Amino acid sequence: MSSFFPPPHLRQDFAASVVVFLVALPLCVGVAVASGVPAELGLITGIVGGLVTGAMRGSTFQVSGPAAGLTVLVLETVRNLGVAGLGAVVLAAGLLQTVLGALRWGRWFRAISLSVVEGMLAGIGLVIIASQLYTAAGTDAPDGGPARLAGLPAALAGALADPGAAASAALAAGTVLVIAGWRRLPGRAGAVPGALVAVVLAALVTAAAGLPVATVRIDGVLDAVRPPDTAALGSLAEPAVLGTVLAFALIASAESLFGAAAVDRMHDGPPTEYDRELIAQGVGNTLCGLLGALPLTAVIVRSSANVRAGARTRAARLLHGVWLLVFAALLPGVLAYVPLPALAGILVHAGWKLIPFRGIAALWRGHRGEAAVLAATAAAIVAVGMFEGVLIGLGLSVAKAAWEASHLRVDRADEPVPADGGGRPVPGGVLRVRVSGGATFLRLPKLLDALEALPRDRPVEVDLSGLHHLDHACRSAVTAWAERHTAAGPHPVRLHALPAVPTAAGK
Asked: Nearest CA to 48 among 225, 310, 213?
């Protein structure tokens, strides 16, 4: 009789796929609406993430789809290039990801500073929260992160004076409360995705009370497919658009591969093959670009739900794409009952979850320099934009690493000598100086100050064997100081372990 039933892991994958589908559905729609594109495009990206990326090798449990982390960049791209331009950018970014994966660059994305990635997520979270609070208040958000933050108090105060806006804000607030509190329910009720429950309740309240709030506009999934035209593809030759392509590829890849590392810590199954996962993400984004849909990344919310639901193989994430496809084909009209303030509430909660509060506190206690890089990256994203903010964060991280790598220590010790060939030892013998750490031009003033303070009436031995790096500037400065010190005093300076200058024959 057991032959009539699927293997145990298929039953577990089937159950997990249903859970992931229920988690992904409201997020696909919410991310699309927040990105300024039709809701159907979010479903298309979710379907591609399940059926295409989910079927490829790389990560066993990671689930891909439209992500809140790219909402800000997508919105800016749609404003500047339109939806057709977005498709061309996503197509090019996907091809770039595929090439990077084929060149085995996937593992190098793990070298990006964690503080920069967390700062990126925190900045994105702040921008999402600020923009969606305006949606919740029933008004348009101003352009620019600083303007949005500055205008929030007035927008929220104005919402209280308008009955329609107050109903919209209350619906969004209720959605956030349901999502935050639902998982605390005991028993099996807490296993149902809180975002789905919140959307259903918001739709029922809106319909029953006749609330004057906007709902999702739906025209049909197939009608939303618009491959990029020749003009959109031609815009890829512009330097500014190429910068946007690079930003999409780098940010989507970093978010996916860092997410893979986080998901790997949640299970004891096969680890992620980073290069293959990068290729899978690239192929998925290439197809999304051809369909004119949103970009996809691995999404930690869906991936963690997949693991917690007991998934065993890639079949779970693939099946979740099947359920999204079935919903898009048979029940797209249901989305017309979903109120936009409820989606705004979902994204406010998602943006809040992007801010790593525990990570910031831990960094502040142990590595304040890393915490400063995180905060600066987040602030730059809010102030000037996603791509510029990430570049600023990377630059600060590299500068910090260079400064720490050049940490230099200079220790000196007197060697006592006996008096009169056998009497009591007295100071005044050889002065031994040990230099350790990294001697770069950044530490050259400290090194020269320590050496030039040495007395000239005693023998000096400088031990450089403790240096793990000695750049050309410091080597030249030490050699010149030794020559000057020897010429000015009665005793020569001895330099130990000074690397030889490479010659043409030795190269």
From this structure: 225
